[in-house]
Amino acid sequence: MRFLYIILLLIGCSVSAQNFEDNWTGLFSYNQISAVTRGNGLVFAAAQNSVFSYERPTGQTTKISSIQGLSGENISTLYYVEDYNLLFIGYENGLIDVYNPTDKSVFTFIDILEKQTITPPEKQINHFFEYQNKLLVSTDFGVSEINLDNIEFGDTFIIGTGGQKLKVNQSTVFNGTIYAATESQGLRFAPVDSDELVDFATWQSIGNSSYLGVVTYVNSLFAVTSNGLLQEFQSGNLSGIQQFQQPVRDIQATEDFLTVTKQSSVSVFNPSGDAIGDINNIDDANFTCSLVIGDQVYIGDRKQGLLNTNLFGTSPVQLLSPNGPLRNDVFALDNIGGNLWSVYGQYDLFLNPYSLNERGISHYQGEKWINIPYEEIQARNIVDVSINPMLPNQAYFSSFFDGVVEVLDNEVMNVLDKSNSNLTSTEVAADPNDIRIGASAFDREGNLWLTQAFTDEALLRLTPGSANFEKINITDIVPQAGTQNNGFVDVVINNGTIYFGTYEDGVVGYDDRQNSFGKVKGDEGAGNLPDDYVRSVVLDNSGQLWIGTVQGLRVLFGPSQMFDDPNVSANEIIILDDDGVAQELLSNINISDIEVDGNNNKWIGTGAGVFYLSENGQETLERFTTENSPLPTDVISDIAIDDESGTVYIGTTKGLLAYRGSVTGAQENLENVRAFPNPVRPNYTGPVTIDGLMEDANVKITDVTGNLVYEEFSQGGSIQWDTTAFGKHKVASGVYFVLVTSDDAAETKVAKIMVIR
Predict the structure, then answer these.
(1) Is 6 helix (H, G, I), strand (E, B) or coil?
(2) Of 42, 107, 298, 588, whose CB neighbour count within 10 A is largest?
(3) What is the homologous superfamily of the domain 577-665 according to CATH?
(4) What is the pLDDT of residues 462-474, one digit of tens each?
């Protein structure tokens, strides 16, 4: 076994990746398999933008994702080089990751991605083939080489007639000749030991068909055309063996078997070219790839994950993918007390839901995912979810086409639509059953408030135990609510007042007690919004309304003003940049979500990553992007915070991640006050978190002689101490007492912190 750790460190064209396992957890889906390979007793499978290994025969799975340092892009192919103990991962954008299972290191080749002479659509990595310490890399522009002895790129072959770039789906070496299955010029071939492979004139063609793949199997060459004809190379010619009636997705060869994967079946051939097995007994199949090891067949499916059965399809089908959510393209999240729901609906920036999707919903509970497929909910385009805070095992889901879904104990109880409730369809949509329910939220009395697009009665209230909705006409404040695409994409409620963001009317408020409306709309001179398309609204612990629009951020310090003053204006947050120049915070940034943690700090999701801001927004505590975190994309769809654990769930269009935060929500008593880390050791430079606090609790920290070194009032369930004496200097080594008193002085708690300098 040859290990290349030292050599890899010297490579100039690769980038060493960071491991994020200390603070992050990947909650990726492993249901959509795109590639499969094997090596050293393991089966490796690619699931969109992550990989997992399956160990035979123990059944243990190991996840490999952006948390371990993978790029997070869409994976197109895999190959394991057994002699070097390296897994090569090819991506649609031209990146190549090299993963070492022994030390979990990841190195990324950026050569193809950064090649200026190749356009982005031509960079996809399609296949790896190992030959004499080289790896042939089939791409959408031609064939490249990687030298396995020093893990460096070698030559690149542009093999099309006249030197044109040519899509190569797969390549192999047979009897001293390289064969490349091309998209439009048949099988291109050339002598493997030729010194002129970089000259396109060296390459010749067999036929002009479009070829999906070509493999060397025992002592023969097999190829499959894009229209499903399996051929064998005999006496200089390709002879047809079998014409498949289904689209062919993949062809692979091992020492013992040749497998051809079609959309709903896998055909297995022996060295004589005889079909010896056909797996076609798996329901709802949408296969992408397959691999035979011994008498076991491992099949990748686009929806069901990695499947396993025996060679003849007679053993029960097993699902080998790790437990995870249904999908990676998160649209909305909600979390209460360790219950996290994720939904996968869609509409574009103009709130157009077409084409309608059928994607199901996912529930994360106790480290385990419970998935409810579309077949059970029978509602399309689920765009929002609200957990009932009085009954956390109950959640309601908004369908931007089919009404409202109620789920209790992971069972679908009701789908409320025109047939069984007083919901009505939109008057302007083409489909008479079109009911576009959008944002939702529960109030303190257990009422569920929802919004509906394309209707005058756009604000709905569902009382506990009812199947009929109270409908509130909003045309006094939004005159065109029923005749234009004025959807409502976020709702927040406080003491009988409902605030919701609109597509083109800014922020609307409804006072349920007074049955009155207010609104903040317009740019400078009016509501001072950067844009009237408001995507997120949230009330912080001080009662301020934070407003996220498609063009930036605003804060309304007294949101109730909108009911009395039609000219009330929101405020931008002005900060000083590194040069001391005043500028607007998050100016021209598309803000998708704003959440408030137990310290009244703000988590803001944008199209440019995640911003973690101080209470007033003046300080950026953290900023997470693909450059400095395991985020697979900078496009953030939603954020949810678990106030009990401090975990921050970040949903993106390419997967869900959990960040281990330290800020928790306010508690009902002081029984669980704690400080961590404790002790504070010399090499620790961060703050000490004190959590388990009640709202507005007084926290004093003193030394052993009673000298006060810190005092703060909590706004949530935790505070952070920087281990200084009122911000002036670091405290000395010793024991420090934490004295906590509730707001009404009815409860007290004492904790200790050991500081070691």
Answers:
(1) helix
(2) 298
(3) Hemopexin-like domain (2.110.10.10)
(4) 999 888 999 999 9
